[in-house]
Amino acid sequence: MPTITATSTAYARSATKRVCTAPEPPTVKSLDRNNDEYMMFNVEVFKLLHTYHATITDVVVDEVSKKVVLSVEAIATADAGDYENEYVIKLGMTEDGRKVVDQYDFIDSQRMIEWMAKLGDFAKESWEKK
């Protein structure tokens, strides 16, 4: 296993600062939801979509801490246009690893903000046609 030294860590930080010069997108905050609230929210979201396909592209399992991290790519179609995004989903598991007890989703906020703008534009255009 490679050893990370203070020098290599400092170099990595310096290199990261040079490469990552784009401004960070704003954070998309959402409410904490229990299972029923999460399900009802997604029912409303999926009513807007004609298709939705999510693909798990990577999985990391930590058996000691009972955590699973999923990397997910999603595509969808809707009247407002196509949707593409990627997610990182952190799951906390029961001691036996059979049930999820906690879920936290990280979403590409720039793509989500762009999608929300598309939805708003579509709603405005649809309203004006009436």
Automatic annotation (TrEMBL):
Source taxon at top rank: Eukaryota
InterPro entries, alphabetized: Fungal_Meroterpenoid_Isomerase
PANTHER family per UniProt: AUSTINOID BIOSYNTHESIS CLUSTERS PROTEIN F-RELATED (PTHR39598:SF1), AUSTINOL SYNTHESIS PROTEIN F-RELATED (PTHR39598)
Name of this protein: Uncharacterized protein
Lineage, uppermost ranks: Eukaryota, Fungi, Dikarya, Ascomycota, Pezizomycotina
